[in-house]
Amino acid sequence: MLGAFAGDFVGSRFEFFPIKSRDFEMVSESCRPTDDTILTIAVGDALVTGRDMGETLRMFAQSFPTSYGMHFREWFNGRLGSYEPYGSWGNGAAMRVSTTAWLATSFAECMELAEKSAAITHNHPEGIRGARAVAAAIYAGLSGWHRDDIKPFIERAFGYDLSRNLDDVMLESRFELKSEISVPKALMCAFHAETVEDAIRNAVYLGGDCDTEGAIAGSIAETWSNVPEDVMEAFWTHIPGPLRKRIQDIQDKMAATVRSPLTREEADAVVAWDPQVVEDWNAALKAAEEEANADEISARKGEIDRLNAESDRLDGIIRHKKLPQQPTGIVAQVKLLLSRFR
């Protein structure tokens, strides 16, 4: 979890001002915790307290304003009409997932919690894949796996190509929120690093969504390396008392968690990622939209038929009473409504 905080903190000043370099001061006055940190704490807090995770995410987001994504902001402010997930495929679920691995007592529970934490907002298959992949890498690291062994496991289970050289990735890297692009970059930053600091520097070097990719890379590398003390000293100066208490509670629970190490057999049994799930998701979404449109068209047609019938009835009254054939009053209103539907 602290690795995620460090990566977010250091990467924050490069998010919109990329330098694509590893040569920089880790701590600067312009560093700050962002939504990556707040929502990582929120997920951990929900797991520790047992509160509803969706409600906890909204509570933290409303209580600690920062640079939340547009769709997430609309969601937690209730502007989407409901608090249902909004089908995001972004990297936001992966950035906040680290505590699910630290607090799970088994790999199966880790995967379950990772998906649960993602699906509250990021219920698109790519959003869930990214969160589960990051949580799996962290859990494997906590189980004592070497990063050279974690990498092929994540590649096989989650279908990411992590074989590329970071220098080649850097040449074409840009700011990207799509989980299917951003998460593999962050994973590579971790697997090409011996320390948390190396992982964060790699994320800044690639020059993409530096705070989020730094948070993901740092959260993974933390399982085999210490978090830089100078970074955390600066980080704590930006964290208000109430959040410090929540973080301490999460750390206490992590320290008390007894987890079953991930075995090779368990890792091999993970069902490999199938790209077909995305096509199935898109097909189901399209079918639902078509059904909704059909229902709306049917409802509108029914309203038009009702208004036409009312117009015919009023026209009949006018003709029967030999009133002027000029629409007035209710007749005018009905005809106006009909014109709008047409």
Describe the structure.
The chain is mostly helical. It has two domains: 2-273, ADP-ribosylglycohydrolase fold, CATH 1.10.4080; 284-341. The chain is built from 18 helices and no strands. The chain has helices at 2-11, 35-49, 53-63, 70-76, 92-95, 98-103, 107-119, 125-142, 147-158, 166-172, 179-191, 196-206, 210-221, 229-236, 241-256, 264-269, 276-320, 330-341. The longest helix is centred in the C-terminal third of the chain and has 45 residues, at 276-320.
Question: How many β-strands, per DSSP?
Answer: 0
CATH superfamily of the largest domain: ADP-ribosylation/Crystallin J1
CATH arch. level architecture of the largest domain: Orthogonal Bundle
* Rg computed from alpha carbons, rounded to a whole number of angstroms: 26 Å
Query: What profile does the largest beta sheet have?
Result: none
Q: Quick one: overall form?
A: elongated
- The top level CATH class name of the largest domain: Mainly Alpha
The tally of domains stands at 2
Order of helices and strands: HHHHHHHHHHHHHHHHHH
Poorly predicted spans = none
Q: Structural class from helices and strands? A: mainly alpha
Overall pLDDT confidence: 92
- How many helices? 18
As for the CATH topology of the largest domain, it is ADP-ribosylglycohydrolase fold
- Report strand %: under 5%
> Helical percent range?
55-70%
End-to-end separation in angstroms reads: 58 Å
